[in-house]
Amino acid sequence: MINIAFISHWIGKVILTISGERTTSANGSFGSNSIYCNSSGTTSLDGSYSINVSDNLNIKTFKSTFNVSTEWINSSSSISGLSFGGYIKDSAVSNDANGNITGVGINTGYYGASIYDIASLQYYVALGVGYHSYELNIDKYEGGNIYFYGNYRYLTGLTGLAMSIKKHIHGITFEPRLGVNRSYALASEASINATQGEENAYLKFNPSNYNSTSYYIDSEIYKKFNLSEITNKISVKPKLWFRYDSIDGENYGNELEIKFSISSQYNNFSLLYSIKESDAYTSKSIKIRLSRELHSGQLSLINSFNKNGNANINLSYTSNF
Length: 321
What we know:
Blueprint: E1 4-18, E2 23-36, E3 41-54, E4 59-75, E5 78-94, E6 98-115, E7 120-138, E8 146-164, E9 167-169, E10 172-187, E11 190-196, E12 199-205, E13 210-227, E14 230-245, E15 249-263, E16 267-278, E17 282-293, E18 297-306, E19 311-320
Antiparallel strand pairs: 1-2, 1-19, 2-3, 3-4, 4-5, 5-6, 6-7, 7-8, 8-10, 8-11, 9-10, 10-13, 11-12, 13-14, 14-15, 15-16, 16-17, 17-18, 18-19
């Protein structure tokens, strides 16, 4: 007899962007988990959706993703899993051109983790395929409308390996990690078609294949302490990385996150400061999160601010059923 426990959750979010870009967006996620008690296995579904409306650019975008994974325990120190997922995306354009840009893709992968005496090892390998197309109509020419359409396909492979350790020293936890990621994308022949009246033009070209390799070293250093029935946590996450890809060449950067959180039975508060620097950009942000446990779920309010003065207000409700 197989005993199955089902835990399902749904998350909805509404985001208001306060900026001069006149952009409204809504996004959320959904999912479910199944635990097979007698086989030590789990199956989960995770998905997301987003809707973005830009009044400034006259573009409306919808995107949805999903991922199904099955995970099992090989031994007391090893787990493995299989995943299958995909995405669909559609952008409706109504400015100088009118039409749609669409894309679909699927992916599958295998992953695992093993714990040894002094360290743990995590690894993955994945394969993905996708198809993207567009149809646009430009009607601002005296010679007649110009109709563009075309498509391209791709095949991509991903793999990664990471090693980490966990140490407790005088009540402080250290979790350093060293990893490498490798990706390769093979693009098919792309096509562009254009018609205006009785005139037609057709172009085919072969995009360059893409490959990249990235190395990183990061760590989480944190300390937890309790005051009455309130749990406090202070954490610091530094990261250094180096990446080479066939388009931009070499690039390197560093990141730092500092977080303070307070958790009680019903209320949670966190303050996060992050900075990211590379050859191409520098970003800084502050994020404040407040959440309240309700009878049937959780209500959260997130305020974030970046170095340009833009502020985002994120209100979400999580319902478990």
